[in-house]
Amino acid sequence: MVRVVAPVVVLGLVLAGWTFTSQVLLTPDNRFLLPPPQDVLRNGLLDPFAREQILPALWSTTQVALVGLGVSIVLGVALGILMSQARWLEFSLYPYAVLLQTIPILAVVPLLGFWFGYDFNSRVLVCVLVSSFPLITNTLFGLRSVEPGLHDLFTLHHASRWQRLVRLQLPAALPAILTGMKISAGLSVIGAIIADFFFRQGEAGIGRLIDVYRQQLATEKLLSALCLSSLVGLVLFWCFDLLGTWIQRRRTD
């Protein structure tokens, strides 16, 4: 019950603060900077013309984010497993994973467009670059966090490297991997929006639409697009949270 009531209460407080700022603190001439929630709802989410623009663009960005997240999960978990099996692989690959995380993605995206074009695959590549690191790190951490006594038990039973990985390390690392998936879910949406923002060719995504609304000072539509984009990330986060809860219940039954 608390998990439902607490976010609702916080949302109510945010909406109340938003309304107070817009209606009281801002003058009518400056109210376009932060329109009240009812105006955003009426002129953005409930306006048929705005929906015809926002929803297809949101779906395009969501497709990119989902494919990018899927590739990141496969790539991140695979690299984490490889690095956990040999120290020399970890020493060889992990610094580049860290380097990938520290490169300013806004500076790299235009180069990716020059090199690989501006199509769907390039946008997916941006998502992979943004969202892979948490999966690599969490997978490696989870696999390395197994208690030494359990490793000794498997050694005592002459378990192979494959048996140790499948029956001991991966089950123990599953909570950490799911945490990495939750983090990467939001990052993949951010990566898809960044790619939309820079790649001006091909099917328009929500990032390009946000930039158009910014240029037009259409703040109600811009905030509507931002809220729906955030909702996609939240839904993906909740899906992995539910998956983790379901797996935990199956393991305890």
Q: Summarize model confidence as the mean pLDDT.
A: 84
The proportion of strand residues reads under 5%
Alpha-carbon distance between the termini?
A: 23 Å
Per CATH, the architecture is: Orthogonal Bundle
Would you mind describing this structure in some detail?
This protein is mainly α. The protein has a single domain (37-252), classed as MetI-like (MetI-like fold, Orthogonal Bundle). 85% of the residues lie in helices and 0% in strands. The chain contains ten helices and no strands. The chain has helices at residues 2-25, 37-45, 48-85, 87-102, 105-116, 120-144, 148-156, 161-198, 206-216, 219-252. The two termini are 23 Å apart.
Produce the secondary structure layout.
Elements: H1 2-25, H2 37-45, H3 48-85, H4 87-102, H5 105-116, H6 120-144, H7 148-156, H8 161-198, H9 206-216, H10 219-252
